[in-house]
Amino acid sequence: MVSLDLIREISRSSASKxxxxxxxxxxxxxxxxxxxxxxxxxxxxxxxxLAAKGICGRCDPVAPGITPGSAPGHLALFGxxxxxxxxxxxxxxxxxxxxxxxxxxxxxxxxxxTLDERGLVTDRRxxxxxxxxxxxxxxxxxGQLIDGVKVIVRPVKEHRLVVVFRGQGLAAEVTDSxxxxxxxxxNEVSALKRPANRTANITRRFIARAREILTRHHPxxxxxxxxxxxxxxxxxxxxxxxxxxxxxxxxxxxxxLAKVVGMEILETGNTFEDELETLKQNYLSYDYFFIxxxxxxxxxxxGDFDRKVALIEQIDSILxxxxxxxxxxxxxxxxHSTPALLKGHSWHPVPVLLFSKWCRPDKVSQFSESxxxxxxxxxxxxxxxxxxxxANALKLNKFGA
Length: 401
Prior knowledge:
By secondary structure, the chain is of the alpha/beta class. It contains 15 helices and 14 strands. It has two domains: 4-85 and 234-392, Alkaline Phosphatase, subunit A, CATH 3.40.720; 100-229, no CATH class. 32% of the residues lie in helices and 20% in strands. The longest helix is centred in the middle third of the chain and has 18 residues, at 197-214. The radius of gyration is 21 Å and the shape is globular. The mean pLDDT is 95.
């Protein structure tokens, strides 16, 4: 990939505007009955019109064959190497709810889950309990003191929570308790390195207490932890790209990701309509906007092909109000593929659409996986998307003599 140091050297500030629209889990797989993916099934006249005027292709969030998590998928879209810039999910969830992490804190992302009488996970999301129920359960778990370490538990959204271990001598190099599959027992947390032995021991004791406390709260009768991490230090988008960047996202983890790279977080509602209204209200104040839509990924993880199709159509129907703002560059893609047939993230390349006054249009006239196969961008690493957007916004100087 092009180094951030090179981009820092040749980037320049200008009045042109870039909008990155991330439709979470956008890519899919063909439904056997029709031979079409969710995106190919959906009626998307606005996206197709942008595709016909722009240039299309596919991107690999990390590398061919590698299934990305949400953090590396988004970091790559922001122009950061997702392999060297590791950010744990716990940190992202904490930052996403504006929790102030201390340097020694170790944060973990949590899911309330359902265990059966054998202790096996039957639902990793506890039926997607309400945020209100989540908050009630977090209050039961919060404030424990284990071997001098305070355990802080905060609700995030629906079944998601953050657990922060605050004390001296903690290390984040421990394994997850979340097996990320059903029909098995939660994993026992263990240290990956000797300095993390204390963290692992404290975490195991917290999990044991949590199981006792939650046992009568079916379907949320247990929790799963993953993404143990400390807050990293990355160069900001202002430093590297000379951008005044803003994030419009309703889910905390994506707000946390944006915050890590220095974006300003704009308060918004839960719908795409709310997000576009936020964009309109703040359009003159920033030159880069990251807009995130979560619901498509959630539908696909539930295996609901038709709901994902309907959501894509709903997004397309509202997209005209974004286009009417006439940003200099519009990029539409996903952070990863989430085929409803797989009910989870996958390694498949993600469709990409880039529209600008200065792009070289290809012959693609439909925004879909199959159409993007012949797009002018080809198949490329997602980290290259940011330099392409910058170039099309005339925000990069010439490199070399």
